[in-house]
Write a structure and sequence with these properties.
A: 428 residues, 18 strands, B: alpha/beta, five-stranded parallel sheet
Chain lengths: 428, 310
């Protein structure tokens, strides 16, 4: 029987409305109890004085790249990065090589994660075979093998008919579809947000309307079918508005935002002189969009913060801006960015941030966790709200270094990550 | 005369006084081109590489002549004949060049921001000879030099820039330069070819007649015929009828209007032949001034000696 006592911390668990000093006893991979001053009685001790103890953070949007692009990331390195970034679970997007569209691939990911992973890995299956948008993948098989949701992430489900059928069919399994919303004909060859900055830089832009059109469509299709849709990496004010109106009508729609869309705008492309670490899809938007996303966090329209961790090699990034790969790594910067820029800046309460990173992601995808209620998985994230550190990409656990946040001094960092009652990572 | 920049990546980062320094230097150096022996030793011992990833007639020959007149050692790399066709990355090409210790690389590239990458990673000076739809600083400088020669000033001039603003690096560099030096700019073209944001920097109209009205300078931009497939406008015939610069339209401008075009021209599309060849056309003066401006840029960035340039 393994026992771990997390002692002397401030427990913040929005799922139970708890924010006070409590000890947490973990036993056999489950939360045994929360109480003041629990005696150790032979349990292994984690001294959490001065730290915040919360239900483990779950990143519902991670690209682990394995199988296929192990030069960018592996399940081992990606989950080490997750643990070091304060995440106890990640949801692995299916745009690997081959695409995770069959049970065999899902099982391979699950087994590899069990053997080599530092944190839990929940695979997401493809909506369509090969993510080609033509035929549905076998949702039933994929769910049985371990998939927790479906997505063609990296691209949208372009055909409204296909999206409709997928939403309908997914209802059989009670699973959510995660859509990367982008009207493809409005984003052709685009490498940044369309607006005054793309005009000055002479780069091809994708208008925010191209995202919002797809979000509107998905909300309407979810309403039509009764299916559940989750909007990936929402980036535009107009998209947020569509989600807000959908929620008000009772449509089963949820949404996530990434830290980079919360804390950067398209001005970063100009300020960095075309640094390709400012290139991602959806692109960094304009300031009114960014401000709207913060508001969407505060009013509850946005359910989750997700990293869209997208590792790339130097070779994929050290090229001309329009040739560079889309995306940045995020697992090791998301939590400190949010602690510093949201909680530290007084925009979001700590308990709400924990909900956005833990309780809500678990609820959206129907995962165990996101709570410290007795009997739930012993997955905990410990935070040191006073620690100051500078983002140093050279020290990342991830195999990739593509971040625009290098050199940024941030206050508030993860202190330890506990997965299934074992310490997966501890700050040195 | 010292110049505080190591690179010329665009007009946007330049102070008005720095732009004037380049123009004054070009005025001073232009006289060399009229000498029987067109050569001064100002940049003797300096190595300049012309790296052109896009076809160019005017810009490249103009840089090459400027390099020779100033006695720099130069070579031009045509990318079709280089390792680029074997898949070498831009950065690898640049680092290989760097290993040969050139003082300057002049680059034209289809990707906006490509010269910025070179400037960030390499030791040599970088001159942007046109990057994507971003900037073409020496073109704007030679345009300004031409306007200043003919009009005696830039401040207060009304300059109409007409055509495909969206894809034009020339329009962007000119917009920066002219607004920095106090000219007023009006941009005209179909809404499909004017990107968002320019209305903050200049007057924008979709009626060419309005743009040309009372203009001191009308600068026509090339319509790239391949744009038609993008659905930006229905036909070149209609484009010419609605947005082309005809004799009749030129008459709306000031009597002493200058008509400019960065070339190459599509006669009968954005500009009627009789306008291109008309008395107000300074299109060939632009070409001559191009050499002088490029001499000035080379000279200022490479810190040539003043005595040797005289």
């Amino acid at each position: 029987m393994s026992r771990l006592l997390v002692k002397g911390g401030r427990v913040v668990d929005p799922s139970q409305g708890i924010d006070r000093a409590l000890d947490v006893l973990l036993e056999d991979g489950k939360v045994e109890k929360l109480a003041p001053r629990i005696p150790a009685r032979g349990a292994e001790l984690i001294e959490a004085g001065g730290l915040v103890v919360c239900p483990g953070f779950i990143d519902i949007h991670t690209h682990l790249r394995e199988p296929g692009r192990e030069d960018k990331e592996t399940i081992a390195s990606g989950t080490r990065a997750a643990a070091a970034g304060g995440f106890t679970a990640v949801c692995a997007m299916p745009n690997t090589h081959p695409v995770n569209d069959t049970a065999g691939i899902t099982r391979a990911i699950v087994e590899k994660a069990r053997a080599e992973g530092s944190v839990r890995v929940y695979p997401i299956g493809a909506i369509t075979r090969g993510q080609l948008g033509e035929e549905l993948a076998e949702f039933g098989d994929l769910q049985e093998a371990g998939c927790v949701a479906f997505s063609d992430d990296g691209k949208p489900v372009a055909s409204a008919r296909m999206m409709r059928r997928a939403l309908e069919y997914a209802r059989t399994f009670g699973l959510v579809l995660i859509d990367h919303c982008e009207e493809p004909t409005l984003a052709e060859k685009a490498c940044m947000n369309e607006g005054p900055v793309s005009t000055v830089l002479g780069l091809r832009g994708a208008p925010a309307a191209g995202e919002a059109i797809m979000v509107e469509r998905d909300v309407l299709l979810a309403e039509l079918t009764g299916g559940r849709v989750h909007i990936a990496h929402l980036s535009a004010a107009a998209s947020l508005d569509a989600v807000r109106r959908g929620k008000a009508r009772g449509v089963k729609v949820t949404a996530e935002v990434t830290p980079h869309h919360l804390f950067l705008t398209d001005e970063a492309v100009r300020e960095t002189g075309y640094d390709t670490n400012t290139k991602m899809n959806p692109p960094l938007r304009a300031e009114p969009d960014r401000a709207a996303l913060i508001e969407g966090l505060r009013d509850g329209t946005i359910d989750c913060i997700a990293t869209d961790h997208a590792p790339h090699t130097v070779d994929d990034k050290h090229v001309e801006y329009d040739q560079a790969a889309f995306g940045i790594v995020g697992l090791e910067t998301a939590v400190p960015l949010c602690l510093d820029r949201l909680v530290g800046a007084g925009l979001v309460e700590l308990s709400q941030l924990v909900a956005l990173l833990s309780t809500n992601p678990a609820r959206v995808l129907g995962l165990a966790g996101g709570t410290l209620a007795p009997g739930s998985p012993a997955d905990l994230t410990l935070l040191d709200l006073t620690k100051r550190r500078t983002v140093d990409p050279a020290r990342f656990e991830s195999r990739s270094r593509n971040t625009p946040f290098g050199g940024l001094a941030l206050r508030g960092w993860p202190a330890a990550t506990i997965v299934a009652g074992r310490v997966a990572w501890k700050a040195s | 005369m010292s110049f505080p920049h190591r690179h010329l990546l665009g007009i946007e980062p330049l102070e008005p006084t720095e732009i004037l320094t380049i123009l004054d230097t070009a005025d001073a150096l232009r006289e060399i081109l009229d000498r029987p022996i067109k050569k001064v030793p100002a940049l003797r011992g300096k190595t300049v590489v012309n790296l052109f990833y896009e076809p160019s007639t005017r810009t490249r020959s103009s840089f090459e002549i400027a390099e020779r007149v100033l006695s720099a050692d130069s070579l031009s790399i045509a990318t079709a004949a280089s390792s680029v066709t074997k898949g070498e990355t831009l950065l690898d090409t640049a680092r290989n060049l760097e290993a040969m210790n050139p003082d300057m690389v002049i680059m034209r590239h289809a990707s906006s921001g490509a010269p910025h990458m070179l400037a960030r990673h390499c030791r040599f000076s970088v001159v942007n000879a046109g990057d994507g739809a971003h900037e073409h600083p020496t073109q704007a400088l030679l345009d300004a030099l031409t306007m200043r020669q003919k009009k005696g000033r830039l401040k207060g001039l009304r300059v109409a820039i007409v055509g495909d603003i969206l894809h034009s690096r020339v329009a962007r560099s000119n917009l920066w330069l002219l607004t920095k030096l106090g000219a007023s700019v009006v941009l005209a073209g179909p809404p499909t070819l004017i990107p968002p944001g320019f209305e903050r920097m200049a007057e924008v109209t979709h009626r060419i007649d309005e743009a040309v009205e009372g203009a001191d300078v009308v600068m026509m931009l090339r319509i790239q015929l391949e744009r038609m497939s993008g659905g930006f406008f229905p036909t070149t015939r209609e484009y010419h009828r609605v947005f082309g610069l005809t004799e009749e339209r030129v008459r709306r401008a000031k009597k002493d209007v200058l008509v400019m075009h960065p070339g190459p021209m599509n006669r009968g599309v954005e500009i009627a032949s009789e306008v291109a060849d008309g008395p107000y056309s300074v299109i060939l003066d632009q070409v001559t001034n191009g050499v002088a401006v490029r001499m000035a840029v080379l000279y200022l960035l490479l810190g040539g000696s003043a005595e040797a340039a005289s």
